[in-house]
């Protein structure tokens, strides 16, 4: 029976220690893994683990060996405690990756033998692939693929025994060739290995939306997302495209206000009454959000497939969107929503918290006294106040006090969509007009190359809906009263105007580059990230198989692997070995010397033949002696001729110029 040694005991010294070159490559592999995970790790963990890695590398270069156990164990315990204190658990995507990367680097403290290095490389490969749990974009995938290169270089260096002169070119070339040869096999496996309907991992994730939108809105919450230029969704229209000022994609409808923040009121679940005919039909590719809400163009007549439509026209998917999600929808341009408002909905959309906004209430009462029950006139008065009352649109708004309504309305008078939508809705409710806040996206950038509307996270927006007698719910955007270009030209134009002029974001060359790059990202999302089990089942339709089951895919996979393996074996058997290359160069040298009058005699060895040629051709004596030395060292000093010596011998033969002897 195999006996397992305790990890705390001294390992047997039968294995040779790692060479400096092998250890350097191992450190490079682990540093690459740390760099790949750094964007989602706490800064203190990244910095601390980097210090440990550099310290261990310097210790090894100075001749140090094993790190004492009284240093390793406290470091492991400290790592475990800090991860649990930071994340509250050791299980999940974020804490799991943090703990794994920390343990990977701590493995360097005891890596001295071949076995330790192989275990470290295997662990590094696992940690490297786990980075794709956070980002599966084309850039992130390319970086992860590049991380395989130092790992394979490390394994190759471990297979070469004895000291040698490190060469990046010699080590890197065969690794790149091996990766290139593996691409067909990887592509075939990607297409035909049966897909699961749900991810293999079930690790819990932090319950946090990544779209910049959430079911809670407070003035100041969107400041970070309004500067986030990453894509949120891409929209393709079957027919006409709505103008920029009509591109409102509603996500959350909020009726509840506690004095600080707005949130949805989920009292009414039934779909309200919508009058009008659908005008726009479109398809959406939504980036992962970890939410269930689907942004829809105003006004949606019904819900997409596998989703439900609530009474406030909010579409909710049947499950959280953990990956790229595609859906189709339609929109009504000229509509009337809820022409009759039931008492429960009216009460909910008029409710205000006590002791909040006394000055704002007084202003609303003054409008009511002036205009009576004319809701449109009161709304126009409020918009005129925003336009002419010294209000300013800025993403760097001053912080608000305890009473956010009065502090903004009569104090700071600067902010962005959240500030204006929240205050405008409060004023309308104080004037007795049912009102609610809607958050979603507005605008978007039309990609002329890909023919789709690109909506970025920076296009997140908030506006107000008022219920007006005889018209139902009507959209009012108070932000447009302060900064009209935010509605007509989009978030980028509003941000550029706030900064005082056109920026890099609006440069023509940058727009063209962005168009092309986003088309590449769109293709990647559809062809790679969007390749699910349903699309895989249709792969064999051209061959008469309407729905490919697991057995069909397994059969194709087995046959394809057999063909690829046979092809690889044939290539390996018929390719020229390094020894043959050395012999081929030697044959060329013999032909050159024969033309110069020096032919090899029967039974004459290479040493005597080259020495006789050097005596017969004194003008080439130094070159022939050097060639003799390189050939003998290549052929007899190693089990296999080293590639660098074979190359040196071939170049020497090419450079040798002899004169033909006329007999």
Largest sheet: 5 strands, antiparallel
What global shape is seen? elongated
Mean model confidence by pLDDT: 81
Strands side by side in the biggest sheet: 11-6-1-17-16
Task: List low-pLDDT spans.
Answer: 1-12, 199-211, 499-505
Q: Compute the number of strand runs.
A: 19
Query: Which percent range describes the beta-strand content?
Result: 5-15%
Which value, in Å, is the CA radius of gyration?
35 Å
In short:
This protein is an alpha+beta fold and 663 residues long. It has 22 helices and 19 strands. Helix content is 48%, strand content 13%.
Notes on the structure:
The chain is of the alpha+beta class and 663 residues long. The chain is 48% helix and 13% strand. The chain contains 22 helices and 19 strands. The strands form six sheets. The chain has a five-stranded antiparallel β-sheet with strand order 11-6-1-17-16. A five-stranded antiparallel β-sheet has the order 8-2-15-18-19, covered by helices on one side. A three-stranded antiparallel β-sheet has the order 7-10-9, with no helix packed on it. Helix 1 (20-37) runs antiparallel to helix 6. The radius of gyration is 35 Å and the shape is elongated. It starts with 19 loop residues before the first helix and ends in an 8-residue tail after the last helix. Mean pLDDT is 81; it is low at 1-12, 199-211 and 499-505.
Keywords:
disordered N terminus, five-stranded antiparallel beta sheet
Write the topology of this structure.
Elements: H1 20-37, H2 43-61, H3 69-87, H4 93-106, H5 114-130, H6 138-158, H7 168-192, E1 231-237, E2 248-254, E3 256-257, E4 262-263, E5 274-275, E6 278-286, E7 293-294, E8 296-297, E9 307-309, E10 315-317, E11 325-332, E12 336-337, H8 343-348, H9 358-371, H10 375-388, E13 392-393, H11 404-412, E14 414-415, H12 417-430, E15 435-442, E16 445-447, E17 452-456, E18 460-468, E19 472-476, H13 479-482, H14 485-488, H15 491-499, H16 508-529, H17 533-537, H18 550-574, H19 578-595, H20 606-616, H21 621-636, H22 643-655
Parallel strand pairs: 13-14
Antiparallel strand pairs: 1-6, 1-17, 2-8, 2-15, 3-4, 5-12, 6-11, 7-10, 9-10, 15-18, 16-17, 18-19
Helix pairs in contact: 1-2, 1-4, 1-5, 1-6, 2-4, 3-4, 4-5, 5-6, 6-7, 7-18, 9-10, 9-12, 10-12, 19-22, 20-21, 21-22
């Amino acid at each position: 029976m195999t006996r397992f040694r305790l990890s705390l005991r001294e390992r047997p010294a039968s294995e040779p220690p790692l060479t400096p070159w092998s250890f350097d490559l191992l450190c490079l592999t682990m540093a690459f893994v740390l760099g790949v995970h750094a964007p989602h790790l706490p800064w203190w963990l990244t910095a601390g683990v980097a210090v440990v890695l550099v310290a261990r590398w310097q210790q090894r270069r100075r001749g140090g060996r094993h790190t004492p156990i009284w240093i390793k164990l406290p470091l492991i315990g400290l790592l475990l405690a800090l991860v649990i204190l930071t994340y509250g658990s050791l299980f999940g995507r974020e804490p799991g990756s943090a703990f794994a990367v920390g343990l990977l680097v701590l493995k360097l403290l005891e890596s001295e033998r071949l076995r330790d290095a192989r275990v470290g490389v295997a662990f590094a490969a696992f940690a490297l692939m786990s980075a794709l749990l956070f980002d599966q974009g084309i850039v992130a995938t390319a970086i992860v693929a590049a991380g395989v290169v130092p790992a394979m270089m490390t394994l190759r260096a471990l297979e070469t025994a004895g000291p040698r002169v490190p060469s990046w070119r010699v080590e890197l070339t065969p690794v790149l060739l091996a990766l290139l040869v593996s691409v067909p096999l990887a592509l075939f496996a990607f297409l035909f290995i049966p897909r699961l309907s749900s991810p293999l991992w079930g690790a819990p994730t932090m319950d946090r939306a990544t779209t910049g939108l959430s079911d809670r809105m407070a003035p100041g919450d969107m400041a970070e997302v309004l500067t986030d230029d990453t894509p949120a969704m891409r929209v393709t229209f079957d027919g006409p495209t709505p103008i920029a000022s009509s591109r409102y994609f509603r996500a959350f409808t909020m009726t509840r206000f506690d004095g600080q923040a707005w949130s949805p009121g989920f009292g009414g679940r039934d779909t309200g009454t919508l009058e009008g005919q659908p005008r726009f039909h479109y398809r959406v590719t939504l980036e992962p959000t970890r939410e269930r809400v689907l942004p829809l163009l105003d006004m949606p007549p019904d819900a997409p497939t596998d989703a439900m439509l609530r009474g406030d026209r909010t579409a909710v998917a049947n499950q959280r969107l953990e990956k790229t999600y595609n859906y189709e929808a339609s929109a009504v341009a000229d509509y009337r929503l809820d022409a009759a408002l039931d008492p429960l909905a009216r009460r909910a959309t008029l409710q205000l918290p006590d002791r909040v906004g006394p000055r704002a209430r007084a202003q609303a009462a003054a409008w009511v006294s002036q205009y009576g029950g004319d809701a449109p006139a009161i709304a126009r008065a409020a918009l005129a106040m925003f336009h002419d009352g010294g209000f300013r649109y800025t993403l760097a708004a001053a912080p608000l006090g305890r009473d956010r309504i009065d502090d903004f309305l009569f104090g700071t008078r600067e902010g962005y969509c959240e500030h204006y939508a929240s205050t405008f809705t409060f004023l309308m409710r104080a004037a007795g007009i049912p009102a609610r806040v809607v958050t979603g996206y507005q605008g978007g950038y039309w990609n002329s190359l890909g023919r789709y509307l690109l909506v970025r996270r920076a296009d997140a927006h908030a506006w107000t809906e008022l219920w007006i007698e005889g018209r139902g719910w009507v959209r009012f955007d108070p932000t447009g009263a302060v900064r009209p270009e935010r509605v007509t030209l989009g978030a980028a134009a509003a941000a550029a105007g706030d900064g005082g002029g056109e920026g890099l974001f609006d440069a023509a060359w940058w727009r063209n580059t962005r168009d092309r790059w986003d088309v590449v990202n769109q293709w990647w999302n559809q062809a790679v990230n969007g390749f699910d089990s349903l699309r895989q089942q249709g792969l064999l339709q051209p061959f008469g198989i309407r729905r490919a089951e697991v057995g069909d895919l397994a059969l194709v996979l087995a046959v394809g692997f057999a063909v690829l393996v046979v092809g690889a074996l044939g290539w390996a058997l018929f390719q020229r070995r390094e020894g043959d290359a050395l012999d081929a160069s030697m044959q060329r040298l013999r032909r050159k010397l024969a033309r110069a009058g020096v032919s090899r005699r029967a039974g004459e060895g290479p040493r005597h033949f080259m020495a006789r040629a050097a005596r017969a051709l004194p003008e080439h004596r130094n070159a022939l002696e050097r060639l003799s030395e390189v050939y003998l060292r290549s052929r007899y000093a190693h089990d296999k001729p080293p590639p660098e010596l074979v190359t040196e011998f071939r170049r020497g033969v090419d450079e040798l110029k002899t004169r033909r002897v006329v007999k």
